[in-house]
Design brief:
heterotrimer; A alpha/beta (about 325); B mainly alpha (about 250); C alpha/beta (about 325); A: about 325 residues; alpha/beta; Rossmann fold; five-stranded antiparallel beta sheet; 11 helices; 15 strands; B: about 250 residues; mainly alpha; globular
Chain lengths: ~325, ~250, ~325
């Protein structure tokens, strides 16, 4: 659960300014309808429909086992589904799967790299499978390695790379042929914050260059940071879909304060309820939790009331709705259960 | 086709840069034939030496390893994930598994030729003199079949460990039934008849007849058996190969 | 002790997740034991298979020491090289025999002696291996090769890093390694012995040793295989490589030690190498037991084998400890 201190502001949305929503096309690049998939007797995708719009960063958010990776793998054409239609630019993807695959760049969840080979050889090999040759191939490789910040290690074997560098190379192998649509399946699993920031920053840049990006993750911080649109999945179903502002708006009616306080005499909750807009007060030892209506300014009054009652305030934290609370609201469980 | 060449190149690179596999494909057969030949040399006369026998029998046994190489090249941990990327890329699924067959075939043919040449030069194994070309072609066909067999078993079982275990049973059975380790003719007519179920028996008998009788009547049937079995193995692989098993 | 029991129980649970693998192993052991026993039982007491070409059908040549196939004309040379026949014997009108063989002069002489007087002929089998030793001889290579395959959970722990967790846990590392050894040992030992005795009781075929002797011999062989497997997996990082090297070494050394055939003497260097091989000591021990040697006579082979097993184990434990305990 994300908790922001009062002074820090709402840092969750700090980077959103770099995303220019006006570049997103309104036309659907890809359209998925009635998708179903079973593994043995368990239905893991239960008839989902969605669209991918030109130029967007569409994030699939959901806990592990929600069906994100399965959906992604079906979209790539690598995994067959029981029923459903997937069309890309108006044509069924299975009609000419090879031609369709040329439009895609895939960043699989597992590191799909030849560890005994240098980084450049890996990128060259995979890019060449998409038809790149000669100068085009050289340029594609340079672009991918520079983009991922690995140019100076191009000739080193992958086995000598750190975890974060391997993750970046995993992306380089997917973008050298400059795909129209990039599909990234949990590309930041198990890496350091620095590499993660590098990757997220890269995703935004790729989108600015015109790529359409599908991104799965169970880190809601990442989704908050890069998504232009979000699909929330749980147990093989899409449970919500929209921009993060729209998703939050539905439940974003309250502001929650958590106050760490010390006192000789327990403060009277009734006094706090007298402040207009206070919906709920819970006092538990040194922890005072207050839910207040978002539209009324109440914090200064809460502080004044507490100080008047000889309460010493050690810290105050405020929390507004985030994707975690959206998920909690929709499913009754936490994202990382 | 261009993509096929690239995948083949990568598969070949993986095979030729694995020191343990090189040792298994070159050093092991050489030492095996030399040791067996040397140890049994005293029980052979001068017209046909123990090296002539083991130079053929053990080399056929070594051809079996092609199945192990192709199975490992297909499903080994080291290459499994990169292979997964091939499944996502615009490459025909047939190329993915057939390139493993062809790469193993090239790898084993090269190492086999090298070992055969050394044995010929060092201990003078009889490879049929003027009929050498026929023997060589039959061996190459056999290498192709066993390369295809390894990939086929992988496509059926979808697990490297089970494949390795099952292959070691099948290959040992082929070897024993083919009479590569000891002749089975002393064990009665039934076992002699069963022994024709082993491809090794066809290859071994055809080689022996060509080299020592100058009789090529077995040759075309043996080649035919190899070609048919290879086609069946490649066909079954194509039918059963599922890219999603990699995911 | 916690590490030992937990690891053993964990290995058992992992095994249950791979039932097909267990079935394969039991099938392979059954096949190998059955092959070792029946091949031995089916083989006749002959000095060889001969193709007899005689003008008249009734030539009167019978001998318990010869498998005779009567043919109208001499078989092709390929049948001699491939081992179908050890010799072609042509009976001339004069009654003399002409022997054609690719085998050594020693064999030719032996055959000539037999043909000269089939009734009285007695082969010299003083150094010949008895049935029990032949059976365990066949099993040596097989069990050694299976050991590296069955040590897979330890190899997997190393490859996937679970071993680091064990090294970091406040438990005995030796207990952990011991559990892997006991697991591998049991999965080799129990099926082999059970199947051997099932075959013995169900078919009544001769197996040469008493129950206790077989118990001891199979015990030693499985212990050697386990120790060798642990040794390989401790020193070689990739399990595939360890398996391949294990197979190569097992096949070559077993052949050299004479697991299948006792060879005529080679040169001195080779002889010296062969004497060091544990399989050689094992075969000497088995042969000695079958010939009723006293414990004093058998003891050197026994202690030598035990020593080799210990060396493998100690080296493996030391290497793994150095890699994971001191390093972590």
């Amino acid at each position: 659960m994300s908790t922001l201190t009062m002074n820090a502001g709402n840092s969750n949305t700090v980077n959103n300014s770099s995303i220019n929503a006006s570049t997103i096309g309104s036309s659907a690049m890809m359209e998925v309808t009635g998708l179903r998939k079973r593994f043995r007797d368990k239905e893991v995708i239960c008839g989902i429909d969605f669209q991918v719009l030109q130029g967007e960063i569409l994030c699939f958010l959901g806990p592990n086992g929600a069906g994100k990776s399965t959906t992604i793998n079906i979209i790539t054409g690598a995994l067959r589904c029981e029923s459903g239609n997937i069309s890309y630019c108006g044509a069924d993807i299975y009609r000419n799967l090879t031609a369709y695959k040329k439009n895609l760049g895939i960043v699989p969840q597992d590191l799909a790299l030849y560890e005994d080979l240098p980084a450049l050889t890996n990128v060259r090999f995979f890019a060449s499978l998409y038809g790149l040759k000669g100068r085009q191939l050289d340029e594609g490789c340079r672009y991918a390695l520079e983009f991922t910040g690995l140019m100076d290690r191009a000739k080193d074997k992958v086995s000598t790379f750190s975890g974060g560098m391997k993750r970046r190379l995993n992306i380089a192998c997917a973008i050298a042929h400059r795909p129209r649509q990039l599909i990234m399946d949990e590309p930041t699993v198990g890496i350091d914050p620095q590499s993660r920031n590098h990757i997220l920053e890269g995703v935004r840049r790729l989108r600015d260059e015109g790529m359409t990006i599908l991104y799965t993750t169970h880190y809601m911080e990442e989704v908050e940071e890069i998504a232009t649109r979000i699909i929330i999945m749980d147990e093989g179903r899409i449970i919500a879909e929209g921009t993060k502002e729209a998703l939050k708006a539905g439940i974003d009616k309250e502001r929650h304060y958590e106050i760490d306080a010390s006192y000789d005499e327990c403060p009277d909750a009734a006094l706090l309820y007298q402040i207009g807009g206070i919906n709920e007060v819970a006092i538990n030892g040194s922890r005072i939790a207050i839910a207040a209506a978002k539209e009324t300014e109440t914090l200064d009054k809460i502080i004044t009331t507490l100080i008047a009652g000889s309460v010493r305030i050690n810290a105050i934290a405020s929390r507004t709705a985030n994707l975690e609370t959206v998920f909690l609201h929709l499913t009754g469980k936490s994202l990382r259960d | 086709m261009d993509n096929f060449k690239k995948i083949l190149g990568m598969d070949l690179f993986n095979l030729f840069t694995n020191p343990m596999w090189l040792a298994y494909a070159i050093v092991f057969p050489l030492v095996l034939v030399l040791v067996m030949g040397f140890l049994t040399s005293a029980s052979y006369g001068s017209t046909v030496t123990s090296y002539d026998y083991y130079g053929i029998a053990m080399m056929i046994y070594i051809i079996f390893n092609a199945a192990t190489f192709s199975a490992n090249g297909f499903m080994e941990e080291r290459v499994k994930n990169p292979n997964m990327r091939l499944v996502y890329s615009p490459v025909k699924p047939f190329f993915i598994h057939f390139s493993k067959v062809l790469a193993t075939f090239v790898f084993c043919s090269v190492t086999f030729t090298l070992v055969g040449a050394v044995l010929y030069l060092v201990v003078g194994v009889n490879y049929g003199g003027g009929y050498f070309g026929l023997i060589y072609l039959l061996m190459l066909l056999a290498i192709f079949f066993f390369s295809a067999l390894g990939v086929m078993v992988c496509c059926v079982l979808r697990s490297e460990n089970s494949t390795n275990q099952l292959l070691s049973i099948i290959l040992t059975l082929f070897g024993v039934l083919g009479g590569l380790f000891f002749p089975l003719d002393g064990f009665g007519k039934a076992i002699s008849a069963i022994s024709w179920m082993s491809p090794a028996k066809w290859i071994f008998s055809a080689c022996m007849q060509i080299i020592y009788n100058r009789d090529i009547s077995m040759y075309l049937p043996a080649c035919g058996v190899m070609v048919m079995l290879s086609a069946a193995a490649v066909g079954i692989s194509a039918k059963l190969f599922k890219g999603e098993d990699y995911i | 002790m916690i590490a030992f029991w937990t690891t053993l129980r964990n290995n058992y649970k992992r095994m249950l997740e791979h039932k097909s693998r267990v079935i394969l192993v039991v099938a392979m052991i059954t096949g190998a034991v059955a092959a070792a026993v029946f091949m031995n039982a089916l083989a006749t007491d002959s000095i060889g298979n001969i193709a007899l070409v005689a003008p008249e059908r009734e030539d009167g040549l019978t001998s318990p020491y010869l498998n005779v196939t009567r043919l109208d004309k001499a078989p092709p040379l390929s049948d001699l090289v491939s081992g179908k026949y050890d010799a072609t014997v042509i009976r001339k009108a004069s009654g003399e025999y002409e022997i054609q063989t690719i085998k050594s002069d020693v064999f030719r002489q032996e055959l000539a002696d037999l043909l000269a007087d089939p009734e009285e002929y007695q082969p010299d089998w003083s150094g010949r291996r008895k049935v029990g030793t032949t059976i365990v001889g066949f099993l040596i290579m097989f069990i050694l090769m299976q050991g590296t395959t069955m040590m897979l959970f330890f190899a997997e722990d190393r490859e996937h890093g679970q071993i680091r967790r064990v090294a970091a846990a406040p438990v005995s590392f030796a207990g952990y390694l011991g559990a892997h050894c006991v697991y591998t040992f049991l999965i080799l030992f129990v099926p082999t012995l059970v199947i051997l005795y099932l075959i013995r009781f169900l078919t009544g075929v001769a197996i040469g040793f008493s129950f206790f002797q077989f118990f001891l011999l199979i015990f030693l062989l499985c212990a050697l295989s386990t120790a060798f497997a642990l040794f390989l997996d401790a020193f070689i990082d990739r399990s595939d490589s360890a398996n391949m090297l294990g197979s190569m070494v097992s096949i070559l050394t077993s052949i050299l030690a004479g697991s299948f055939y006792s060879f005529d003497k080679g040169n001195q260097t080779l002889e010296a190498i062969i004497q060091v091989l544990p399989q050689k000591a094992y075969l000497e021990l088995a042969g000695g037991m079958e010939n009723g040697y006293s414990w004093q006579e058998l003891a050197p082979w026994f202690w030598y084998l035990l020593g080799i097993i210990l060396v493998f184990l100690v080296a493996a434990v030391a290497k793994t400890r150095r890699n994971y305990i001191r390093a972590s």
